[in-house]
Amino acid sequence: MTGQIVFDPLLPWVAIYALGAVALAGVVLALWRGLTGWPLRFFAGLILVAALTQPSFQEEDRAPLSDIVLMVVDKSASQQLADRLEVTESAAQALEARIAARPNTELRRIEVGDGEGDSGTQLMTALSAAMAEEPRGRIAGIFLLSDGRLHDLERAPGLPAPMHLLLTGHQDDWDRRLIVKNAPAFAILGEPVTLTLRVEDDGAAPQETRTTLDISVDGGEAQSFTVPVGEDVELPIELPHGGLNVIRFAVPEGAGELTDRNNAALVQINGVRDRLRVLLVSGEPHAGGRTWRNLLKSDGSVDLVHFTILRPPEKQDGVPVTELSLIAFPTRELFLEKIEDFDLIIFDRYKRRGILPAIYLDNVRNYVENGGAVLVAAGPDFASADSIYRSPLAEILPAEPTARVIEEGYRPTVTDLGQRHPVTAGLSGAESWGRWLRQIDLTPLEGDVVMSGVEGKPLLILDRVGEGRVALLASDHAWLWSRGYEGGGPQLELLRRLAHWMMKEPELEEEALWAEATGQTMRIIRRSLDETVGAVTVTRPDGGTEEVTLDEVSPGRFEALYEGPEIGLYRLSEGDQEAVIGLGPAAPREFEQTIASGDALEPVIDTMRGGVMRLDDGIPSIRAVSAGRPAAGRGWIGLTPREAYETMDVRQIPLLPAWLTLLLASGFIIGAWLREGRR
Questions:
Q1: Using an 8 Å Cβ cutoff, are 203 and 595 in contact?
Q2: Can you list the domains of the chain with their CATH numbers?
Q3: Is the pTM of this model over 0.85?
Q4: pLDDT (tens digit, 9 = 90+) per residue, 94-106?
């Protein structure tokens, strides 16, 4: 039960002060004139002014509230190293017992795990949320049981009471970590990309100046190098293939090291071609030649060398050679000396005319078998006696001409197999495509027929020969689509896909297995020309395996989602297809720094004069300290009692009732009048 005097003025305080000043001036005037009733005038004015303030005696019935202590227990990944978790739990239980033994004190325990994704330890976020649920006026102290490695210091709240960090870990802890300072997302094939790595020792590390660095690509056999410790190392790497390259760097675990979780790093770099070199040979000028040229020139990554044969050797019209402005076809240079420099060779309506001897065409065959690519866009000459099929190229071409040229309108159609092949899959609107007007009749020998024409006859055939690829388009009328004939068609997209498939772009492989990662979830994708595929075997970083069944989401494309249980390199296999993918960051944030330290939290703790103490030195005792006083010392930490309360009942008694005010004021005024009137 407590009481105090409160005021509820009838007028603004300024007006009351003014009236009080007028009354005081009257008293001073009476005193100056020698009036003997001035004391009575003073008391009368004082009572009237006091009455305007309406003083009351307020009596409150208060119930004391307990003090609240917040204890934040860090259970993130870095706290599970060595014996930190056991030490933390033991300290938490001891503090709970000591708080329970204190009178009028309650404990709130908040456990903090790993943040979502790779956000690390969110201690301050959890503390802010806990403080928002409690009255700040009751919080007497905050205990943090942690290794001091947090990743949201900028969210630290304003503290109403002392905060103390009880630090886990040991003085002799040490850790070695591998840091990848720069890793590009893309790199050009055939050109080295420089990565900057650093091997760094933290804590009470042994004095080692060099260590071993292992490097493996796509889960292959690792190569070992010796690198310095504590220095940046620039490492040039050349990607072995296009598409995703998964590179793993690792250093061996040292004796007594705190953890090896940060001794390895995964870097995933997409290999892209700098320039695609294409040789286009047109047997004669025709409308389709410009279509090929425009397609290839529209792609900024393509270097095109285009020759159109305008004057064949057999042409004899008497024009002096000195008056000709034509460029001689550099056959020897292109087809013998520099043929390996090209990624793709296109024969557009080309026929044997003595320009390319058989030995040159045989060299083209060797070029394909060794990994090159040839595309033949056939015109009527392909069915003639001068067809390039009647050359060494016949050994690699997937179909034989029957000598029949079909001159009638037809609408190109994607075959059932073509619906599954990435070159033609998804080409929508076939019912509205414009017609082509010519087709060369072929007898398929090898390869995959992905498009058909008149009466279902093969129109586009794709084949693999040795390490290379061959495509045969049995018509020279694809250009009709680009002109919009009868509505046109997806000519640009079809020819672009065809050219990129032949140049072995990974996204257009018909038999492929790969995965796309989002956090710890991977989307496993299998593309196949078969109607069914087997389960994918996933090999986890710890060596365990499991089978994942895929579902067909579109013709030729099978997918499944897989949640990786840990960070690291995963291997996928199905049949003869293999792939690797890394889940998680290059270096998990929780293991970037693992040595326990209170340096990051000291500025926040110092605002309320709290302390940082190692649990190695024992669990500190708890004392009560006044606000503003040092709240930590040798072997002890302090709480600030808040003496909070809850008001149960309030009663007010007026000090100057109206009748008493009237009686007293009237009495003093009449007394002053009588005293001064008698005189």
A1: yes
A2: 2-63+647-678 (no CATH), 66-170+596-643 (3.40.50.410), 174-261 (2.60.40), 276-502 (3.40.50.880), 512-583 (2.60.40.1930)
A3: no
A4: 999 999 999 999 9
